[in-house]
Amino acid sequence: MPVADEPGTDGGGAAARVIATPAALEAIAELVAERGPVMFFQSGGCCDGSLPMCFADGEFVIGSHDVRLGEVGGCPFYIDARQFEVWKHTQLVLDVGAGEPEGFSLAAGEDRHFIVRSRVFTAAEQAELARG
């Protein structure tokens, strides 16, 4: 399971496009225990916001061009294809921030919402990701 405490990896040493902080993993575990499976979608901003959105599994329809970045806490994380082209050289780190979520996203607990931080992949990580 990708965890931010293992910088840049999927927990097994491979580069991961999305990882999560312990706080985000705890919030995901609580959501799954309360509501069942969830999924994440990172849009490109504008009308649907710029924060990652968390939905009950199946509540949000993924487009055929959207990109599955990986899983966090056992839950799939997708990104809008156009946003992926802009951010494909960065690793997303799912975390939790104070305040209510945007749009229709599930909260990450009382008065908390999910956020993403990012960092640029190293050249070695980019090569590893290109090899698949």
Any chance you could write out the topology, listing elements then pairs?
Elements: E1 18-20, H1 22-35, E2 38-42, E3 53-56, E4 67-72, E5 75-79, H2 81-87, E6 90-98, E7 112-120, H3 123-131
Parallel strand pairs: 1-6, 2-5
Antiparallel strand pairs: 2-3, 4-5, 6-7
Question: What does it look like?
Answer:
This protein has 132 residues and is an alpha/beta fold. Helices cover 23% and strands 31% of the residues. It contains three helices and seven strands; from the N terminus they run E-H-E-E-E-E-H-E-E-H. It has helices spanning 22-35, 81-87, 123-131; strands at residues 18-20, 38-42, 53-56, 67-72, 75-79, 90-98, 112-120. Strand 4 (67-72) and strand 5 form a beta hairpin. The two termini are 18 Å apart. The model has no long low-confidence stretch (mean pLDDT 87).
Brief sketch in words of this structure:
The chain has 132 residues and is of the alpha/beta class.
Keywords:
single chain; 132 residues; alpha/beta; 23% helix
- Please count the helical segments: 3
Overall mean pLDDT score?
Answer: 87
N-to-C terminal Cα separation, in Å? 18 Å
- Poorly predicted runs of 5 or more residues: none
Structural class: alpha/beta
The biggest sheet, with number of strands, parallel, antiparallel or mixed sense and barrel status, is: 4 strands, mixed
Instruction: Output the helix-strand order.
Output: EHEEEEHEEH
Output the radius of gyration. 14 Å
**Helix proportion of residues, in percent?**
10-25%
Proportion of residues in β-strands: 25-35%
The number of distinct β-strands equals 7
The coarse silhouette is: globular
* Major sheet strand order: 3-2-5-4
